[in-house]
Design a protein that fits this description.
Elements: H1 2-16, E1 21-24, H2 39-42, H3 45-51, E2 56-59, H4 70-83, E3 89-94, H5 96-106, E4 123-129, H6 149-152, H7 159-165, E5 178-184, H8 202-205, E6 216-219, H9 227-232, H10 249-260, E7 281-288, E8 300-306, E9 314-319, E10 324-330, E11 345-351, E12 358-360, E13 363-364, E14 367-370, E15 374-378, E16 385-393, E17 396-404, E18 410-411, E19 424-427, E20 430-436, E21 446-449, E22 452-454, E23 456-461, E24 469-474, E25 482-488, E26 491-492, E27 496-498
Parallel strand pairs: 1-2, 1-3, 3-4, 4-5, 5-6, 7-9
Antiparallel strand pairs: 7-8, 10-11, 11-15, 12-13, 12-16, 14-15, 16-17, 18-20, 19-20, 20-24, 21-22, 21-25, 23-24, 25-26, 25-27
């Protein structure tokens, strides 16, 4: 009996054990022995997590000789994560460390515009602390005088930052990683107080460029006491955001709550929409291009713009005549990720698209609808990884990257919005769901109704319509209703409503 009790206890502990956490620090103008341990940048964070039974690994940027680029550090981070031999990890980054993670997620390489995204990032959650997503407060005029490539990649408006922000469909894509951003607003002189953390503008640190408003939490703290902050000389007299100690309890409360899976972090600090500056201003990263999508001028950066395309964070604006692609999604569905799948029905949204053939990696796609602002097409079953999609007509062309994963389920709804009542056929307690994105395998891992798994009696292509998938499920009763979600591969579908029978 005692053996059985111990076995159950150990099994319960193993199931409840949290993933390892990787801490990634930021830029250091000079490196000393103190930079080889996490306490310099993160204070007590490592010891506090370890006290909760969490394995912690420190990825220190000063442990690499020769000042490698952020792209090379991203590749090294991937090696570190894989060497942990864990199914998944959580990441907490400070400052440039967030760019290292974003570079890893996108597979960014040192050659401009070249990406090799990992098939499985193995990253479950990310706490982004003071990431200079669109650069630090470094004047572009001094870029050529900066001591290394890492510092130059922190200058607003550089090619590296533009590539990161546009690597998938001319957007950034965090690959479905559950993310929260912690940013500080204790910097800025006089009437500009609240516009930065002493090193990074609040618009640049905000995660609103790719995440909902509430996923950024603004705290009355500073960037940190690093030597870059001292060199910039912008000043910030408040506790550091990432160096966890007794004088900055709010940062630890967010990190601890978010990584442990509670909702307390949602009430700490405030989101951009409730911030004095972020509620009114946003940043713009822009580039002019000609009608065939060739750069026609330098990259522009403005960190505080009134009436911006996206208040609360940055937006990327590509100014060009002719066809322009705004977004590519599964047809008649909506997902929180930009990934697509082989044999998926897709909708391309934008402007000046009429009479445009669609080419993916040199292969013309079958079209079933085309207008000035939307094209519906079918992806081939042979495409995978990062692919190039081009629309072209007599007014010009545009090409974007699209990222193809094995399976990305997207359930159709009656009104085509991807939300609300599902498009179904129902007979007593048997229901046929219609979707796209099951890829070549056509096998979902499970389907849930109100978070309870239901039996699947068929999953695969629907007869008579290329790209359309069908899943038949058996309900517990003929009147069962509620929220349905399809799980396949690493992804969950959009949640749709199943009306009562």
């Amino acid at each position: 009996m005692r053996f059985l009790f111990v076995l159950i206890t150990l099994t319960t502990f193993a199931l409840a054990q949290r993933p390892p956490v990787v801490l990634i620090d930021g830029y250091h103008l000079t490196c000393g022995s103190e930079n080889l341990a996490s306490a310099k940048d993160f204070g007590e964070l490592q010891s506090r997590l370890q006290a909760e039974g969490v394995q912690v690994t420190f990825f220190g940027t000063c442990s690499f000789s020769g000042r490698p680029s952020i792209e090379d550090l991203g590749n090294a981070l991937g090696t570190t994560i894989r060497n942990l031999n864990a199914p998944e990890v959580d990441v907490v980054s400070h400052s440039m460390g967030g760019l290292i993670l974003r570079s890893y997620l996108s597979g960014k390489q040192i050659t401009p515009g070249v990406f090799q995204p990992p098939a499985d990032t193995k990253v479950r959650k990310w706490v982004s602390i003071a990431t200079p997503n669109f650069g630090a407060l470094i004047p572009s005029l001094v870029a050529s005088f900066l001591p290394d490539i890492q510092a130059r990649e922190l200058v607003p408006g550089n090619q590296f930052l533009f590539d990161l922000a546009t690597w998938n469909q001319n957007h950034d894509d965090l690959r479905g990683v559950d993310t929260v951003g912690i940013i500080g607003n204790a910097g800025g002189p006089g009437p500009l107080g609240g516009t930065n953390d002493g090193t990074v503008a609040v618009t640049s640190a905000s995660m609103s460029f790719t995440l909902p408003d509430g996923r950024t939490r603004v705290l009355p703290y500073c960037h940190g006491a690093g030597n870059l902050t001292a060199v910039l000389g912008l000043g910030c007299d408040a506790p550091p955001l990432a160096k966890i100690q007794n004088d900055n309890p709010l940062s630890w409360q967010i990190v601890d709550s978010f990584l442990s899976g509670t909702d307390a972090w949602k009430t700490i600090g405030h989101p951009p929409s409730q911030d004095k500056f972020l509620s009114q201003f946003g940043g713009v990263l822009s580039q002019p291009r000609d009608d065939n999508d060739r750069p026609a001028g330098p990259i522009g950066d403005q960190n505080f713009v009134s009436n911006p395309p996206l208040p609360g964070g940055y937006a990327v604006v590509i100014n060009k005549p002719g066809p322009r692609i705004a977004l590519i999604t599964p047809s008649a569905a909506s997902l929180p990720v930009l990934s697509l799948a082989p044999r998926m029905l897709i909708s391309i949204y934008g402007d000046n698209l009429a009479l445009s053939p669609v080419i993916v990696n040199g292969q013309a796609l079958p079209l079933n609808y085309s207008s000035e602002h939307q094209i519906n097409a079918l992806l081939p079953d042979t495409v995978s990884g990062l692919a190039r999609l081009t629309v072209r007509n007599d007014r010009g062309s545009q090409t974007v990257n699209i990222f193809i994963e094995d399976v990305v389920p997207a359930v159709f709804t009656i009104d085509g919005s991807g939300t609300g009542p599902a498009a179904i056929i129902r007979t007593a307690n048997f229901v046929s769901l219609f979707l796209t994105g099951l890829g070549k395998s056509g096998v979902p891992s499970r389907v849930t109704l109100n978070d309870m798994t239901v039996p699947i009696t068929y999953a695969g292509p629907a007869p008579g319509f290329r790209g359309l998938d069908q899943i038949n499920i058996e309900l517990p009763s003929a009147t069962a209703s509620g929220t349905v979600v399809v799980y396949a591969g690493k992804h969950a579908s959009n949640a749709v409503r199943l009306p009562s029978g």
